[in-house]
Amino acid sequence: MQEKALTDFISSGALHKGRMLSEDEIALLKGEGVTFAVEGYITVGGNDVVLRVGVDDLFPQSLPKVYLNDPDMLGFIPHVGPGGSICYADTEGIILNTEYPVSLLNDAVTCAAQVLEEGITGTNRVDFMDEFMVYWGRLSPSKLILSFVRPEERVRRVYAYYDSDGNCSWIAADDSSVCSFFNYDLSPMKSLTQRSAIYIPLEKAAPITPPEPDKQWTIDEVRGIVKSNVSDQNLREMQRLCKKAKIEELVVLGLPRSSGEFTLVGLLFHQVTGGHPLIGGTAKDPPEPVLILRCDPQYLWPRGGGDVNLSTVNVMVVGCGSVGGHIALALARTGIGKLTLVDYDKMELENIFRHILGRDGLGAFKTKALKAQIERKYPFVEVSTCEQDIRQIVNCELTKLNMFDLVLFATGNPTTELHFNKLLHGMEKGPLALFSWVEPYGIGGHAFLTRPGTSGCLQCLYEPADDRQAALHSRVCFAEPGRSFGKDDLGCGSRYTPYSGLDAERTAGMTVRLALDGLNGREQGNPLISWKGSKDSLEAAGFETSYRYGQSLDQMHDRRYEYVRSDCPVCGDSIR
User: What is the CA radius of gyration of the chain?
Assistant: First the structure.
């Protein structure tokens, strides 16, 4: 199929004097996985340019590969690799029309020609800055350094951390930025020594051409690039920091990208004498290129969908069971900087299929096992735990409610949660409160956000009570109110509510999204959010659904604030 597609492509005339390449000629492209290829001319900027277009065994389920036959013919331009390969398309999210392979080949040549045209005219020169790390990597740097430095627009001193063999492991502005990556575990730093280095952000002016693969920057070139691309203020600060020099000096350059972010690259100056090489000293020439991998929160959080602005937010999760466990792990991935987990239960065997811990932590407190898992997986989160009943320790130092920005309850105990709803609404400046629960038999789950001092609280979700009622009934449940859904497999003390790990995970995801909306201000009200599942299992077990279950999801969304009771004893008109 691939050979026929290329034959038809030659017939289309997209390439002048197109011809199939021989096996010997294709062998030169085998490293790219090419199995069939053609060659021909196109005209770019008035120049006749020879292109080679190849496909692999997966084509047309993969993009064609396009090469400039003479990689140096048009000079050093963006998106052309050392072997002439042309990067002409962003493959992320692209959907190929595999029914028309010749069209894929024609489009590939058209796009490649545009890349070359923009390279000749200089209109894509700024792409050098956006792709700088790729070009820097082609210098084959032998050292890779992790960076915890937050790129900023000012020159400053940073610190390089060296192991006992003299190898630099990472760079950071200070110890605290390293500690946060390791969740405040200091043990990785104990065997390392600290040496000063310098961070220099370059300005977003004329694009800087990266070094070609076989031409490292000389010391004079580095000096010229720095002096031509820093502000006067940064130049003065750089000169001040460079007054003293060591035998080995590390310089970190921050190169601005069009997105506003920075690419970091390193230069290691060896055998330094007579002062810092940036201001007149000498060193081994050229300096050694160093690959720097950004590990700072400002880089990592957004790539995973997290929000750097939440790094100072403090959240308490009360209840770390099936729903709360999923919530805790999800919150750790959002950018939230501090978590306190409260639960006195231990992880038991019968919970492994609906708890996120699975077999991990069997016999241990759920809080401690979750803390260990979070710290093993995710950086920048400080996790505290409390293995006591929240009702007994609410005024303890670790669990004072006014310490937190959000208190999230997933206890499965409405009585306890109603008590804390009243307590929080009685505070003058209480935190946001969020209550999360799952219903039996996969019929649904709910998340409810409330702001102390405003109308709409957890008590509003229950029917008005009088002195003769021993139990309250929910106004918003999906299963018929007033029924017990607990199952008993082993006798007294073994009752549980039947729902799956998928139900818990779905409820947790919905809850965390609502928590983020509340914390970042997207949600200013007190909404009740629900998801709805199938009623089949519930009815098969002999139960019925409620009136609210019969509403559509759109209706529930439109009525998410309409539960408020003016006669509520916690937040009603008489209270406010």
Answer: 31
For residues 39 and 176, membership in a common domain is answered with no
Same-domain status, 447 and 482: yes
Q: Report d(CA 401, CA 431) in Å as an integer.
A: 7
Check: CB of residue 194 under 8 Å from CB of residue 160: yes
Residues 396-440 pLDDT 10s: 766 688 899 999 999 999 999 999 999 999 988 889 999 999 999
CB under 8 Å, gap of 24 or more: what pairs does 167-172 form? 167/143, 168/143, 168/250, 168/268, 168/290, 169/145, 170/145, 170/146, 170/295, 171/145, 171/146, 171/147, 171/197, 171/250, 171/252, 171/266, 171/292, 172/147, 172/148
For residue 130, give the 3-state DSSP assignment. Answer: helix
Angle at 479 between CA 476 and CA 480, to 5 degrees: 90
Give me the pLDDT at residue 42, please. Answer: 95
Sequence-ordered list of residues with C-beta below 8 angstroms from that of 32, at least 6 positions apart, any chain? 54, 56, 65, 83, 85
531, part of any domain: yes
Q: Are residues 292 and 247 part of one domain?
A: yes
Residue 112 shares a structural domain with residue 137 = no
Residue 576 confidence (pLDDT) above 80: no
pLDDT tens digits, 367-401: 999 999 999 999 999 999 999 998 888 767 666 88
Write a three-state SS string for 388-407. CCHHHHCCCHHHCHHHCCEE
Structural domain count, the chain: 3
Query: Which CATH number covers residue 24?
Result: 3.10.110
Strand pairing partners for 253?
Answer: 200, 265
Residues 296 and 185 in one domain: yes
In a domain, residue 197? The reply is yes
- Least-confidence region, from 121-130, 145-154, 184-193, 457-466: 184-193
pLDDT tens for each residue of 225-250: 999 999 999 999 999 999 999 999 99
Residue 247 within any structural domain of the chain: yes
Look up residue 277 and give its two tokens. 């090489």
Give the separation between CA 269 and CA 267, rounded to whole angstroms.
6
Residues 394, 506, single domain; the answer is yes
Task: State the residue range of the domain holding 287.
Answer: 132-301
> β-strand 338-342 against 382-386: which pairing, if any?
parallel
Same domain, 109 and 151: no
Sign of torsion over alpha carbons 57, 67, 131, 250: positive
Return all residues near 376 (Cβ < 8 A) that are at least 6 apart. Answer: none
Among residues 269, 275, 273, which one has the least CA distance to residue 288? 269
Find the DSSP H helices in 257-378.
297-303, 322-331, 366-377
More confident residue, 467 or 273: 273
Q: Provide the CA 183 distance to its chain's centre, in angstroms.
A: 17
User: Which CATH number do you get for residue 545?
Assistant: 3.40.50.720
Query: What value does the mean pLDDT of the chain take?
Result: 91
Amino acid occupying residue 263: T
Return the amino acid letter for 107. D
Q: In terms of domains, do 356 and 445 share one? A: yes
Distance CA 567, CA 576 (A): 11
